[in-house]
Amino acid sequence: xxxxxxxxxxxxxxxxxxxxxxxxxxxxxxxxxxxxxxxxxxxxxxxxxxxxxxxxxxxxxxxxxxxxxxxxxxxxxxxxxxxxxxxxxxxxxxxxxxxxxxxxxxxxxxxxxxxxxxxxxxxxxxxxxxxxxxxxxxxxxxxxxxxxxxxxxxxxxxxxxxxxxxxxxxxxxxxxxxxxxxxxxxxxxxxxxxxxxxxxxxxxxxxxxxxxxxxxxxxxxxxxxxxxxxxxxx
Length: 234
Description:
This protein has a seven-stranded mixed β-sheet with strand order 3-2-1-4-8-6-9, sandwiched between helices. It has a three-stranded mixed β-sheet with strand order 5-10-7. By secondary structure, the chain is of the alpha/beta class. It has helices at about 20-40, 60-65, 80-95, 115-125, 145-155, 170-175, 190-200, 225-234; strands spanning about 5-15, 45-55, 70-75, 100-105, 110, 130, 135, 170, 205, 210-215. The protein has a single domain (about 5-234), classed as Spore Coat Polysaccharide Biosynthesis Protein SpsA, Chain A (Alpha-Beta Complex), CATH 3.90.550.10. It is built from eight helices and ten strands.
């Protein structure tokens, strides 16, 4: 089933990420360039929303220097609220109908590959409700033995069932039907995917365009990705 996607919405929650925010936005800009090069005549409109959640460092200033990036500040301290708020802001401003909008989620401590938006759009146009993307930890801060152990436990394969908010896409009408992201500090991504599947909607996965994400062992979200790496490191 071919679906026309008129708009791609990229949502990035950030909480005190001044060390990685430039890398994140540089990567998104490169992905946008690749999308326009690949689809020069029919690429959808792309909007990027960064949600500044309780930021007390220089993250907001970094985002403010980037033209075309929409920023919204909140004080929830919960990534589920941040993702939902960013999506709400983008959909409110969107001219397209929800069934013609694809929402691509990543994180401020992550860097998407150049083909990331192309892979997201491909899944959207194929008519899938959601796409579970893969992540790979930044080798900096994680020694070779621990990295190899992590990859053995989380292999990059098309049929993976890992849910990562740093690489998760969904169509806007399905997002709304499933009730959106829960207002929780962690696990909002997995809870949302379960809600989609409970509705009988098609959720697919891919190892293509794996997102590079922080290998820090102390993360912003309790029991989040940093907890997985800490278990490996332990």
